[in-house]
Amino acid sequence: MGYLLWIFGFIGAHRFYYGRQITGVIWFFTLGLLFVGWIIDLLLIPGMARDADHRYDSGETDYDLAWILLTFLGVFGIHRFYMGKIFTGLLYLLTLGLFGIGVLYDFLTLNGQIDDLNRRRH
């Protein structure tokens, strides 16, 4: 999944996926540090994946599917419907992801949201 999101890494998608929000925001606003950092990240993905595997609990809500839905359909709130957040899913659908701000918020917090859902269900 990290490699798929790396394709969009110049906006920081893979960094957000691996729980690296600060550098994700930096990549988002600098186009992956003018694409240089984006290329270097291709070599760093295995290490980021190992760190993320230790940090987040797997469970009923799948991280990969939620990230695919956020990355490609986030403005429509499909990832929120998937997580069972119907009200905010409808809100995103009607406001195009709260005018993009909600989508950026979810890039920053999606791993934590899924981790909370999975912990509550265990």
From TrEMBL:
GO terms for cellular component: membrane. Residues 2-42, 63-107 form the TM2 domain. It is a multi-pass membrane protein. This is NINE protein. InterPro entries: TM2 (IPR007829), TM2D1-3-like (IPR050932). The chain crosses the membrane at residues 25-44, 65-83, 89-110. Keywords: Membrane, Transmembrane, Transmembrane helix. It is found in: Membrane. It comes from Parahaliea aestuarii.
